[in-house]
Amino acid sequence: MSQLKENVKVLIADDHQMFNDGMKMMLSPEPSIEVVGQVFSGKDVMDAIHRLNPKVILLDINMPHMNGLDAAAQIVKDYKEVKVIMLTMYNDKKFIEDCQKMGVHGYVLKNSGIDEVMEAIVQVVEGKKYYDPKLTKPTLENRHGDDFFMKQFQLTKREIEIIGLVGKSMTNEEIAEKLFLSIATVKTHRNNINLKLSINKPADLVKFAIEHGL
Q: Of 8, 60, 145, 155, which one is least surrounded by beta carbons within 10 A?
């Protein structure tokens, strides 16, 4: 693994407290890393940059109030000296291409180890781009239907079916009637979906369904 040649201030932006805290714990022993702050919503990122002057931001895509992609676009535009690394569960062609187009410096999957995250930090601080070697470039043609989502997001066929119906703006009651399920069962499936996709709002699930062609 490459080594940092300077001390680097890092800001962690992720709305999941356990992941945010865990990332801080893993980075803190690194002698050249100073975790200067943690934020848990997109709207707090800009204020934290102004107050804390980080060199690198580890930024989740799916956050409340302002999503990570919108935050990244603003950071790249307004804070040229700050390096943005998306740290996300989404191994998704559209998100990856959007990040590349807007000039995001790095993109690392959340199932990576700390060595991978450190390598990304080193590379972007040196002025290079770092996109996780595990990233795929799936298209709608080669996703092989449900298999892609079952492997990529650990979704069941029933959950994929429900996401598709949510994407068509169907209510829980309508979904239950269509699939011959109880409303309680539909709600349970939707809670599980939200946990797997790190989604907090119904609108985000609709967006996910549309963006993934479900």
A: 145
